[in-house]
Structure formats: structure tokens, C-alpha cells
Specification:
The complex is a heterodimer of chains A (about 350) and B (about 1050). By secondary structure, chain A is α+β, with helices and mostly antiparallel strands. Chain A contains ten helices and ten strands. In chain A, the strands form three sheets. Chain A has a four-stranded antiparallel sheet. Chain A has a four-stranded antiparallel sheet with strand order 2-9-6-7, with no helix packed on it. In chain A, strand 4 and strand 5 form a beta hairpin. Chain A starts with 14 loop residues before the first helix and ends in a 5-residue tail after the last helix. Chain B is an alpha+beta fold. In chain B, strand 17 and strand 18 form a beta hairpin. The longest helix of chain B is centred in the C-terminal third of the chain and has 37 residues. Chain B is elongated and about 120 Å long. Classes of the chains: A alpha+beta (about 350), B alpha+beta (about 1050). At the A-B interface, helix 2, strand 3, helix 4, helix 7 and strand 8 of A face helix 25, helix 28, helix 30, helix 31 and helix 32 of B.
Chain lengths: ~350, ~1050
């Protein structure tokens, strides 16, 4: 910033002080603070300063944009939408009754690897149009119950999934009740492709939000089954699918980690996925996708930041350029007192 | 209604009247909570927040924890309640101190030391020198043989000179020892708050003298909270006690004052409330469409209420900052100071120094002092005095004794005069210098030393100067030859019409005119010899009149009128009242700043106009024009008012200073019958001079402007201004603050309060819009994106700390403001939230909300869309943006600004890291997690660049190509070049003599016929310029003086 006048009140009001003796008694103790005379830098928007600021922004932003875009392009992603394909063709008119029936819901999908995918490869499931951020859904959980065995009956906030058959549910609430229960099995060249499901949740959650002495109890015993049934012998801190699910998403389209494949996948390899299509997204027209993705320093595949940086950088460059042109074509002296209307028209306001 | 006070009667009065316990407390322990809450909830904003807070108790519809609303609400209430409580406690303490003070009171005939609160009506109270008077007393004895005592009444009326008080005639000469046993009855009116009137009668019981009723006036009393000075002791009978004293009656509990800012906030809260209802309805319908049956109920609270709550919060915190000791009488009004539109000022003592100097005089047609400007050095006069010219001696005698001055001999032998009025002081001192020395006053006997011989006069009656009668009357008896003489001095119109038939008053009229032209205060002196029987007859009437209880003042005036005829006018005195330092410059500056200036004075019209001219109050021709409103009857005033109004409407578009002059009489009629027209005139006119106005008229004028919703500032020092000032919302102890300091404060306060409220709206709206946008992607269910803690911290801390220092922001240095005072006018126009700046900030907040929201949900999509993380990204985006917004709006960066803006940003991270380190908190580890992600920082920079880029570009464009006046001055100031302004203030010659050369005596007369155009009913004709070298175009249909003069002549 350009600072032309380092001192704030150099000139001016000597007359205020000359009257000092008369009001000695009431005069406040002098300090630069109370007299508002601290040394100050007073930047003003000179063309040079503004143009160089915009120029600087564009110079910084365009390279960052390019780098981000490359990072995003480097990420290899396989997305497979399966919620329709995994319903037998004759039942596609009434998917909801299919998903609620006891029919066999196993389904096989083929995924072709287009580019080399370096390990670790993250397996996500993506739900669309699923409002995990709905107010009543978000609130329907009991953190104290998840954390501590002793407060297992603290289910007051969990309505409508608080009690079942007169007994508190552990873990209670709509979120836990609606736990995603599709399962995926991967095979490559008829060989089982191992998916590591350990360590997919946040360590902090495992350590301090979900107790290792809290076991599922009375879970999914109601008439209306929501989602996955938890193993009552495994403590919640080890139920990583639940922990991941309980981290609610802020957006209606979200991905959650299912597991990690810890080996490279070569181009043109075909992965066979055997999936259990259990989860009911059909009643609200939700989409289900299976996503295999590598990662970069910037995260997953997301062109937004790169494009946004390039756009902002470009616009700044354009602004800097046009300000320069305008400045050169139509220079205007700053602080010309003739712009003061009372100087043009003395006496008239 | 009367009360009968029995002196020294220990029993009877105790039940009738209250004791002397004074209480200024507003609350008691029991009623504090309900009363204080009631007061706080009488504000619309607080009601609104209570409603919101109550709604939030209903958990079904609440998106955030109720604590986020209740916490701050209770906090704010607690802060203001404890402030009130503390103030009240201090009041209680001071009351207690006063109540428990020990005083000497006669009980059962013996003097006892008792607490002040135990004084009862009828008790005799003894005071020593410098004691505070505990209640209203009627004097019955003092240490002074003449029964005089001196009191300081500054606590009552603000006047610091000593006043004399005298014991009633009936008590004169009672022995010191007997005062204990005095018995009698005082018949006095019920307590009122008029500190200038006490119409009562005293009758002493035997054995104390006669059964005659002795009239009492305010001169015989000493009122509560005065101080006894220069008198060894005094004693008096308590007549009013406790809260029923004159002081107690006039002391009201101060109502909480709403400043302009508060009022504005209340209005805006109303607007927000409506806005909320609309949004709720729209979103409620949207929610229904979305098939969620719960949504309608839920969306009621969708729009978070928080976004207006802390506007008030901010401003309240600021007040303590700006209330820098300069004017700390009421901290809340400092923001109003920047918005003053009308300044009403007293003349004497405010614009002028109130140091009167006798300059000129005219004795029997001879002008003295015209050459040198000082009559005391005029050899002509000195010779006349030395030669004992009878006219001059008479004149000087009146000067010396027609007054209420008390001479006091100091130890060195010099004579000091104790005068209540500066004019009298000037006259007596001048007389003394002209060898007519007022030596001593011994009871009713005056001693005057004239050229070595001592002359004694006995004062028979005195009627002091009142602003209604405008003259003073003294009847004295010459002790040498027993002649009774009536002496009078007063305003010309109160004296000259009563001159005896044959006297030529023309020269005196001319003298008065001439002196007034010079800005001098004039007084006419006159006398008349009374015959013995005439006096005796009149004296009886006077006695009777002065002991009436009803309308005493009026009755006395009427009686005196009978004596006041056939005066022999002796001459005219002219007294100069010098202008204060820097007054012309200050007034010029303030007027350029667009502040309307009214001068209210008791002086003569011409004097007032001259003073006004010399202090730049009105501009001389051809720039200025003065319009006169006068008239004696309703019709005349009405016509003149309409004419002036017409002229005013036409000229209001021209760059011309039009001022109007109105005198007290016309003002009275105008205010009574033509209030509407006068109000319009008041609004149109930037300058006005009201002369010959009484204190109550001053108050009426202030009231009038207040009723039109103008911020008015009244400046005054004397007791006669107290009423005017009391009428104001803003009471300022500004008498000493006149001048440059005021303007500085004005512009700073103005800017900061404007920015404050704009910024408060901006920051609240940003959050509000983000919440609204988020509701669209959360099924319109009303989920709060931000957690309650963050929201609270955002409003209370992150966004309010940086603005606190905006108080210290200066956009222009004092020097520049002084050079271009016009800038203040533009500030006034753009003050606070006018619709266009509001739209600007509204647009900015909408834009920033979009930037933050869109970037956040896109950068943190898919696998990163975890709720807590996303909310913190959005919040930090807002914090970053607001830091840059404040930085962009700050004009001067001192260390404080940097600390507040960037330190606050750092503080945001530190605080959130601390919260993130607590396992129990909802956002455990979130902030650490985010800060490790490169994408987080990249997102922040993107938000800042995308949010600030357009704002900066726009601001730059406006700054350079459509600069506001302030911007231009800022640029000029920073570029360091010389700032030229055609409107520069040139130092004005201060002495009046320099401006107005002594006028030939015939000039005023010859001008009169030219003043006729105003009567021609044509507004255009009234603007005809004279161009005859007169200082300015002064229209006067017919001088009141000359009309009364001519009438006088005709009558004879």
C-alpha cells in the first residue's frame, strides 16, 4: 500500500492549544491515543497501486490455477452408477417394492480401468439427493450415548428412533438407523481384490467420539428396518462404517469412504464388482454410485478450484489492463480541488 | 394553595409536611428488576429480541442452541442494568451523605447539632460561612448589621457571581440571642419549581414587634444547595424541605435518552422484522412445495435472528470510547453531535466575552467618546465633569446609584463592586472613574463621593430590571435637601416614550441608533423629581402591591407604571461587549458546514444585527439579505411573516444568505398564532436572529425545532439559557468547547457511527444470506450451517473488535477539515444509512455471501462435504472477507487498526484451534484438519480475491472518476499539494470600529423611507439592493422606535 503521509495531524490546529490555560481543569490528560494522534499510514487508491494489485493477483493466481487443474486432472476416477441397473429389468417399474422385498439383490458390475491407478485407491459410495443435512435428521443422534456406555439410555434427542420395544436403542437416532448397507466385493482376474476397511474413519472419532465399551444393543429391532445391522459383539469404536456415516454431509450429494484398495491398477484391467444392492434410495429417487479414485495433494478430482483460479486471475489481468488503458487515455489528476462543487459554485450548496 | 409555616413550633407541622430527607433514587431494591426491565423493554429492538429468544425456546423450530440468542441478550441486559444500578447506587450514596450532614437547628429553644434529614418545616436553621443550605429557608438573621448575606447559586442556575440576600424588614434589628425564641407565621405558596419567585408574607408574634404583615420575596430566601459566602453566619426558617424544595421540584428523574442512532436502529429493526416475515412466508411456501410437512413450522425460524442483535451492541461499546472527557456529561449523545443541524446560541457570554466596557455616552444631546472610541478618555467629558456641569453630574449620579450594586471595601481601601449584571458593573465603574464614586451602602443609605464631597441618599424603593419591563426604577431621597427623586434606566423603548412633553428625544433616538449600529449595548437614563405627597400616596400602593400573594410581580409593575411618566431623559450610555476569540471563524466554519445557526439574544435589534455581522453570522450585501419580521398586532405580524416567507421561498434556490430577524414581541405572536408559517420559515432559513427574546421564548424556539425532528444544539452559559438547554435532548457542556475541537469531533464521530451501522448490517447480512442459501440445499428444513458457538463468536467477537477501532479512524486531518468546512455539510447529507448506501452494503453482503457459499460448496464437494468442515470453511471465508472489508474502508492505519484487523484474524484461528483441541466440543480436531489441507488455504485466497476484487475495482472507479468531496480532499491531502479552496476563511477583523466608521447622525433617518419597499407586498421589491454604501441590505418597514416616537410626538 502506498503511504504518503506518515503522520496524521501535522498541520492545522494550533488554535485549539492556545486556549489551553482557560480550561486546564477539565482538560484530559494528553496522550496520543486520546487525542487521536497516533502515527498513521493513510493509503489512498492511486491508479498505480490499484493496477499493480490486480496485476499481482493475476500473476499469482494463474499459475496456481494451472497447477491445481493439473493436480485435479492427474486424479483417476472410475464412477459407476448402479441403482437402476442393479434392479432386475422386469421390476424396474416398482423399484421400491423390490428393494423392500426379500428377493436376492446381488448384482455384478464390470469396471474398466482407463489409466494407471496408483495405490492407495479409495473406494467411495456416492449418494445423490440424499439430505443428510436435513435439520431433523442431523439432530437425531446422541453423542453422549455413542461415547460412553454409562449413558446408554440417553436417547432423548434421538426421536423417532429412540426406543424399540420399550428399550433404548444403541446407537439411537435416524442417522444410525439409516446406515448405508450396500456391500461391494471386488475381484480382479478372478482373484479377490482386498479392500482394507480399517482406518477409513477419522482417528479422532474412533478415539474420543465412539466408545470402545459401547456395543450395539436393540439395534434395528423395530418393524421398519432402516439400513445395516451392526454386529452386537463389536464395540462402536471399531464399527468404522458407522463412524464414517455418522459424519453427516453438508451437501445433498456426497461421497463416503467405503475402503481402500492397496495396490496399483493397470490400464485396461477389468474389475468385477459383486454388490449387494440393499439400500433403499428409490423412495426418494436417490442415485447410488460406486467410485474408485486416486488422490492428489489437493484431494480428489475437482476441477473447480483450478478453473476458478484461472478465471479470477484472468479477470484481474483484464481489469488491470483496462484500468491501465483508461488511465492512459483519460488521466485524471487526483485531489484536484476544482472537483469540489463549492469551488465551482461558491456559496451555493 | 398556601401553606402556613409556624416558626419554631416543634409539634404541629411534623405530620403536615415531609421531612428533609432528599432522594434522587430512581429505583428501590424491590422495584429495580421490574422497573429496569420495563424500561429496557420499552424499546422495540429489545422486544423483538425477546420474541426471537422466546421462539427459540421451542426446540422444535430452533436451528441453533437457544443459548446463542439468550446468552448475548442476557448479557446486554445485565450490562445496562448493572450500569443503571451503579448510577443509582451512587445517587443513593450522595443522597445519604447530604441527608446525614450535621446542621445546627433550634430545638426546644436550644441550638442542637442534628442530621439534615431531621429538619422539619418551621425549624430555625443556622448556617456558617461556606455551608451548603440544606433546605429552602426564609432568612431571619445574619451576621451583617444590615441584614445582608451573600449566596452562591451556581447549583441552581449556573450563575457563579454572588447574590445578595436580605432579611425581611420585620426581622431587622432583632437581637442575636432572641432569634432562638422568635415566633411567627409565614404564609407561603405550596412548593413550586420557580427559583425566581417566592411570594409570601411573614407575621411575627408578640413580643416581636408589630402585627404588620411583612412581604417576603425571593430576596429574603436562601434556597437548597446554595452556598453561604462572605457572611459569618445566617439563620432562617425552613419553609420547604426534602424533595419539596424548589430545587427538588425542578429536579426530574432523567429519562433514558434515545440518540438518533438508537432511533435509527429501532426503525431498522422494524424493517428487518418485516423482511424476516416476508422471507419466512416465501420459504414456508417453498418448504411446502418440497413436500416436507414439517417444513412450514420449521422455516419460521429459518432466517436467523442474530443478524441485527449486535448493532446496538457495537454502538454501545463505542460510546465509552468516544466519550473522551471533552464532554462527558452524557456519553450517549456523542454520535448526535455529528448530526447537529441547528445551533442555537446565546449571544452574551457565549459569542461575546461578557466583559462589558463603557465606551460612549450621549448627555443632553452631546456625544462623548465618538472620537477616541472611549468616553472615559474624552477630554470634553472630563472637562464637563471637572466643571460640574449639572447635566453631566445628574447623568453620572444615575449611573452610580440606579442599580443593585453593592460596594465592598477591601482591606487595602479600594472599593470593589458586587454586581449581578455586567452592565451595571460597567456603569458603576465608569462613573467611579469619572469621579462619581459609589462609596458605601449602609442599609438604605447610599454614599456617593463626587469631586471630593460626600452626598448621601436614602433608598426608598427599588424595582429591579426585568426583561419584561425592560427598565429599572429606584426612588431615592436626597439626605441633604430631602428631595425625592425617581431614577430610571432601561431600554430606549421603555424610557423614551415616557419623557416629559416638551423634551426633544430626537437626539437620544439618534444616539441609540448610532450606538446600535456599532454593536454597542445601549441604555437610557432618566430621572424625575417627585413631590412629597405624590410619593407618599404611591408608596402606600406599592406596599400593598408588594405584599399580595397573587400576581405580585404584575401588580408591582402596574403600580410602578403610575410613577413612570414625565421623565427627564438625561442621556444614553453605550457599552461594548467584546467578541470572544475565534468566534467569527468558528461561526463561518460551522455555517459552511451546513449547520443552521440561530442567535437568540435579549439585545436590541440593531445591536444584535451588528454583532451578527461582525461575527460572520450574516453576510453583508450583496451576498446576504436580511428580512425583518415585526409588527405590533396580529395582522401586522401575519403580513410581515407571509412576506418574508414568500421572499424566502423564492430566494432559497439562489446562492444567497438570507436571514430573518424577529423580535420578541413579533415572535410571541408568531409562535402563538402562526406557528405553522413560522415553522416553515424556520426550516427554510439557515440563519436567524431573535432579539429581545425572553428565556421562555428561547425554550419555545428550541422546542419548535425539536418538534420538526431536527437535531438541535443549544449553547449558552447564563441562567437565562438553562431553560432553553433543558428542552434539548442533547445537553452539552460545550461552552468551553467552542471552536475547532468541536468540528474535529463532529466529523470523526459522524463517520465512525455511519460506518459502524453500515458494517453491522453488512456482516449480519452475509451470515444471513449464507444461511438462506444453505437452506435451499438442506431441504428448506432450516438447518444452521454454522454451529451456535461460532455464530455467537462471529457476532460478539470476530466482527466487532475491528470496528471498535473505526472510532479512531480519521478520513481527513483537522487541517483539511478546517480549510474545507463545507465537507461537513456533505457528511450530513450522507449520514447513517440512507437508502442508497444501504443498498450498496446490502448488495455487497449479498455478493459476498454468494462468493463464500458458491466457492465453499464447490471446493468442498463430494468426499469433503463433511458438515463441520464445510461450516468452518464458510465461516473463515466470512472472517477473511470482513477483515479485508474493514481494511478497505479504513482511511488511516495506525498501529491500533492493524492490531484490530489482522490481530483479529489471527485471534480467529487461535480461538478455533483451542476449541478444536477440546475433545468434548463438536468441532474437535476440525480446525487442525483444515489448516493442514492445502485446498483450505487455496479456497480462502480464492474467496478473498473473488470477493474483494470487484469491490476494490468499483471503489477505485468511483474514487477516481466519481470522487466524493471527501475523497477529493483525501487525495489532495495525501498528494501533499497545497489545497486551494475558494471558500477559505479569511481572518476577520475583530474590532467593530474598523468595520463601521462612525456614521453621520442623519444617516439612519434618511434611510428610513427607503426601507418602505417591504410594505409594497412585492417580494421582488424587497430584494432591491440599496448600494448606498450601507453595510448590508437591511429592510425595515418602519422602525418601531421612530413610530413610537412619532406617536409620542403626536400625542403631545
Amino acid at each position: 500500500m502506498s503511504s504518503n503521509a506518515p503522520s496524521s495531524s501535522a498541520g492545522g490546529v494550533g488554535s485549539a492549544d492556545s486556549a489551553a490555560p482557560r480550561r486546564n481543569s477539565k482538560r484530559p490528560k494528553y496522550s496520543k491515543f486520546t487525542q487521536q494522534e497516533l502515527p498513521a499510514c493513510k493509503p489512498i487508491l492511486t491508479p498505480r497501486w490499484v493496477i499493480s494489485a490486480f496485476m499481482l493477483v493475476s500473476i499469482v493466481f494463474i499459475p496456481i490455477g494451472v497447477v491445481s487443474l493439473f493436480a485435479s486432472r492427474d486424479v483417476v476416477e472410475i464412477i459407476d452408477r448402479y441403482e437402476t441397473e442393479c434392479v432386475p429389468e422386469n421390476l424396474r417399474d416398482n423399484k421400491v417394492s423390490f428393494i423392500q422385498s426379500d428377493a436376492n439383490k446381488t448384482c455384478t458390475r464390470k469396471l474398466r480401468v482407463k489409466k494407471l491407478m496408483k495405490q492407495p485407491i479409495y473406494v467411495y459410495y456416492q449418494l445423490d439427493n440424499f439430505y443428510q443435512n436435513h435439520r431433523r435428521y442431523v439432530k437425531s443422534r446422541s453423542d453422549s450415548q455413542l461415547k460412553d456406555n454409562s449413558s446408554w439410555n440417553d436417547v432423548s434427542s434421538c426421536k423417532p428412533e429412540d426406543m424399540s420395544n420399550g428399550q433404548p436403542i444403541v446407537p439411537c437416532g435416524l442417522i444410525a438407523w439409516s446406515l448405508f448397507n450396500d456391500t461391494y466385493n471386488f475381484s480382479l482376474n478372478n482373484q479377490q481384490l482386498a479392500v482394507n476397511k480399517r482406518g477409513i474413519s477419522w482417528k479422532s472419532d474412533r478415539d474420543s467420539k465412539f466408545g470402545n465399551d459401547v456395543f450395539p444393543r436393540n439395534f434395528q429391532n423395530g418393524t421398519l428396518k432402516g439400513g445395516k445391522i451392526l454386529d452386537p459383539t463389536v464395540p462402536l469404536s471399531k464399527q468404522e462404517d458407522l463412524i464414517v456415516w455418522m459424519r453427516t454431509a453438508a451437501l445433498p450429494t456426497f461421497r463416503k469412504l467405503y475402503g481402500k484398495i492397496e495396490r496399483d491398477l493397470q490400464p485396461n484391467e477389468t474389475i468385477h464388482v459383486t454388490l449387494e444392492n440393499n439400500y433403499n434410495t428409490y423412495s426418494f429417487n436417490g442415485k447410488k454410485k460406486l467410485v474408485l479414485s486416486t488422490t492428489s495433494w489437493l484431494g480428489g478430482k475437482n476441477d473447480f478450484l483450478g478453473i476458478a483460479y484461472l478465471t479470477v486471475g484472468g479477470l484481474c489481468f483484464f481489469l488491470a489492463l483496462s484500468f491501465t488503458v483508461v488511465y492512459l487515455l483519460k488521466p485524471r489528476r487526483l485531489g484536484d480541488p476544482s472537483y469540489l462543487s463549492w469551488n465551482r459554485n461558491p456559496g451555493g450548496h | 394553595m398556601k401553606r402556613y409555616v409556624y416558626i419554631n413550633d416543634d409539634e404541629s407541622s411534623h405530620e403536615l409536611f415531609c421531612d428533609n430527607r432528599i432522594s434522587n433514587r430512581k429505583y428501590t431494591v424491590l422495584n429495580f428488576l421490574p422497573k429496569n426491565l420495563w424500561e429496557q423493554f420499552s424499546r422495540f429492538m429489545n422486544q423483538y429480541f425477546l420474541l426471537i429468544a422466546c421462539l427459540q425456546l421451542w426446540s422444535l423450530i430452533t436451528p441453533v442452541n437457544p443459548a446463542s440468542t439468550w446468552g448475548p441478550l442476557i448479557f446486554i441486559f445485565a450490562v445496562s442494568a448493572s450500569k443503571e444500578a451503579w448510577d443509582d447506587y451512587n445517587r443513593h450514596l450522595s443522597d445519604k451523605k447530604a441527608n446525614e450532614k450535621l446542621v445546627w437547628v433550634v430545638r426546644q429553644g436550644i441550638r442542637k447539632h442534628i442530621q439534615a434529614q431531621d429538619i422539619h418545616v418551621g425549624n430555625i436553621v443556622w448556617l456558617r460561612e461556606n455551608d451548603e443550605v440544606p433546605c429552602d429557608l426564609v432568612l431571619i438573621g445574619t451576621s451583617d448589621p444590615q441584614g445582608l448575606c451573600y449566596v452562591e447559586t451556581s447549583a441552581l442556575d449556573g450563575e457563579i457571581d454572588l447574590k445578595t440576600r436580605v432579611i425581611p424588614a420585620a426581622c431587622m434589628g432583632i437581637d442575636f440571642e432572641l432569634l432562638h425564641k422568635i415566633k411567627g407565621v409565614i404564609e407561603c405558596p405550596n412548593p413550586d419549581k420557580d427559583i425566581r419567585r417566592f411570594d409570601a408574607n411573614l407575621r411575627l408574634f408578640p413580643p416581636f414587634i408589630d402585627n404588620d404583615v411583612c412581604p417576603l420575596t425571593i430576596k429574603n430566601t436562601i434556597l437548597q444547595s446554595c452556598y453561604l459566602r462572605n457572611t459569618e453566619w445566617a439563620c432562617g426558617v425552613a419553609v420547604h424541605t426534602g424533595n419539596e424544595t424548589k430545587l427538588g421540584m425542578s429536579r426530574g428523574i432523567p429519562e433514558p435518552k434515545l440518540t438518533a442512532m438508537d432511533a435509527m436502529i429501532d426503525k431498522l429493526t422494524g424493517a428487518i422484522f418485516v423482511f424476516q416475515i416476508v422471507v419466512v412466508m416465501v420459504l414456508g411456501i417453498a418448504g411446502n412445495v418440497w413436500k416436507d410437512t414439517e417444513a412450514r413450522k420449521v422455516s419460521l425460524d429459518l432466517v436467523k435472528s442474530l443478524y441485527a442483535k449486535f448493532i446496538d451492541w457495537d454502538s454501545e461499546m463505542i460510546d465509552y470510547e468516544t466519550g473522551i472527557p471533552s464532554h462527558a456529561t452524557n456519553t450517549a449523545i456523542s454520535e448526535d453531535l455529528g448530526q447537529v443541524e441547528y445551533i442555537m446560541t446565546d449571544k452574551t457570554g457565549t459569542l461575546t466575552e461578557n466583559r462589558m466596557i463603557f465606551r460612549r455616552c450621549c448627555i443632553s444631546g452631546v456625544f462623548y467618546g465618538n472620537e477616541g472610541g472611549d468616553a472615559l478618555k474624552d477630554t470634553k467629558l472630563l472637562n464637563a465633569v471637572a466643571g460640574s456641569s449639572p447635566d453631566v453630574v445628574q447623568f453620572l449620579t444615575v449611573m452610580a446609584i440606579c442599580n443593585t450594586v453593592i460596594p465592598i471595601k477591601s482591606k487595602t481601601g479600594a472599593i470593589l463592586y458586587k454586581a449581578q449584571s455586567q452592565d451595571e458593573d460597567a456603569l458603576v465603574n465608569a462613573a467611579a472613574q469619572l469621579h462619581m464614586v459609589y462609596v458605601n451602602k449602609n442599609a438604605n443609605i447610599l454614599e456617593i463621593r463626587c469631586n471630593g464631597s460626600v452626598i448621601k441618599y436614602e433608598v426608598l424603593e427599588t424595582l429591579e430590571f426585568t426583561s419584561d419591563r425592560k427598565r429599572m426604577l429606584v426612588v431615592v431621597k436626597d439626605c441633604q435637601n430631602g428631595k425625592i427623586v425617581l431614577l430610571s434606566k432601561g431600554a430606549d423603548e421603555a424610557i423614551l416614550p415616557y419623557a416629559y412633553a416638551g423634551q426633544q428625544t430626537r437626539t437620544f433616538i439618534e444616539a441609540v441608533e448610532q450606538y446600535a449600529q456599532l454593536g454597542l449595548r445601549t441604555l437610557c437614563l432618566a430621572w424625575r423629581e417627585l413631590k412629597e405627597d405624590e410619593y407618599q400616596e404611591w408608596s402606600l400602593m406599592f406596599k400593598e402591591a408588594s405584599s399580595t400573594l397573587v400576581d405580585r410581580e404584575w401588580r408591582i409593575a402596574e403600580v410602578c407604571q403610575r410613577l413612570e411618566h414625565d421623565f427627564e431623559v438625561l442621556g444614553v450610555t453605550a457599552i461594548e461587549d467584546r467578541l470572544q476569540d475565534g468566534v467569527p471563524e468558528t461561526i463561518e466554519t460551522l455555517r459552511k458546514a451546513g449547520i443552521n445557526f440561530w442567535m437568540l439574544t435579549g439585545d436590541k435589534q440593531n445591536t444584535a444585527i451588528q454583532i451578527a455581522l461582525s461575527c460572520n453570522f450574516i453576510s453583508p450585501e450583496p451576498k446576504g439579505q436580511l428580512l425583518l419580521i415585526d409588527g405590533k398586532t396580529e395582522d401586522e405580524v401575519c403580513r410581515s411573516l407571509e412576506r418574508v416567507l414568500l421572499t424566502m421561498r423564492i430566494t432559497s434556490s439562489e446562492p444567497k444568505d438570507v436571514a430573518f430577524v424577529v423580535d420578541g414581541w413579533a415572535l410571541e405572536i408568531a409562535l402563538k398564532h402562526y406557528r405553522k408559517a413560522f415553522t416553515e420559515l424556520a426550516i427554510l432559513s439557515r440563519t436567524a436572529i431573535c432579539c429581545r427574546v425572553t428565556p421562555s421564548q428561547k425554550a419555545q424556539l428550541v422546542e419548535l425545532l425539536k418538534s420538526c425532528d431536527y437535531r438541535t444544539l443549544a449553547i449558552g452559559d447564563g441562567g437565562n439559557d438553562v431553560r432553553m438547554i433543558h428542552k434539548l435532548i442533547s445537553v452539552l457542556a460545550l461552552v468551553e468547547e467552542k471552536g475547532c475541537r468541536l468540528q474535529e469531533q463532529l466529523i470523526i464521530v459522524l463517520e465512525s457511527s455511519a460506518f459502524l451501522s453500515q458494517y453491522s448490517f453488512y456482516k449480519s447480512l452475509v451470515i444471513c444470506f449464507i444461511q438462506i442459501f444453505f437452506s435451499f440445499i438442506s431441504g428448506v428444513s432450516g438447518t444452521s450451517l454454522f454451529n451456535s458457538v461460532s455464530l455467537m463468536a462471529y457476532n460478539v467477537f470476530y466482527t466487532s473488535v475491528p470496528v471498535l477501532v473505526s472510532v479512531l479512524d480519521k478520513d481527513l486531518s483537522e487541517g483539511t477539515v478546517m480549510q474545507h468546512p463545507q465537507i461537513l455539510f456533505y457528511c450530513q447529507a450522507g449520514r447513517l444509512l440512507n437508502p442508497s448506501t444501504f443498498a450498496g452494503w446490502f448488495g455487497r453482503s449479498l455478493f459476498h455471501a454468494i462468493v463464500v457459499f458458491v466457492i465453499t460448496i464447490h471446493a468442498y464437494a463430494y468426499e469433503k462435504s463433511e458438515m463441520e468442515e464445510l461450516s468452518m470453511v464458510a465461516l473463515s471465508g466470512c472472517i477473511w472477507l470482513q477483515a479485508f472489508v474493514v481494511a478497505l474502508e479504513t482511511n488511516s492505519f495506525t498501529i491500533l487498526q492493524h492490531l484490530a484487523i489482522w490481530g483479529n484474524l489471527v485471534a480467529f484461528y487461535v480461538i478455533n484451534w483451542i476449541i478444536s483441541a477440546i475433545p468434548a466440543s463438536g468441532m474437535y480436531t476440525i480446525m487442525f484438519r483444515l489448516c493442514r489441507q492445502p485446498s483450505y488455504w487455496i479456497t480462502m485466497f480464492l474467496i478473498v480475491a473473488a470477493g474483494m476484487g470487484p469491490v476494490l475495482a468499483l471503489k477505485y472507479f468511483r474514487y477516481t472518476y466519481r470522487p466524493s468531496k471527501i475523497n477529493t480532499l483525501q487525495q489532495a491531502e495525501r498528494m501533499g499539494g497545497p489545497i486551494l479552496s475558494l471558500g477559505n476563511i479569511e481572518p476577520q477583523p475583530r474590532s467593530m470600529e474598523k468595520e463601521v466608521s462612525p456614521l453621520s447622525i442623519t444617516q439612519p433617518k434618511s434611510r428610513s423611507p427607503v426601507y418602505e419597499p417591504l410594505l409594497s407586498d412585492s417580494p421582488n421589491s424587497s430584494r432591491r439592493s440599496l448600494g448606498s454604501g450601507t453595510p448590508f441590505d437591511f429592510f425595515q418597514s418602519q422602525s418601531r422606535l421612530s413610530s413610537s416616537y412619532s406617536r409620542n410626538c403626536k400625542d403631545n
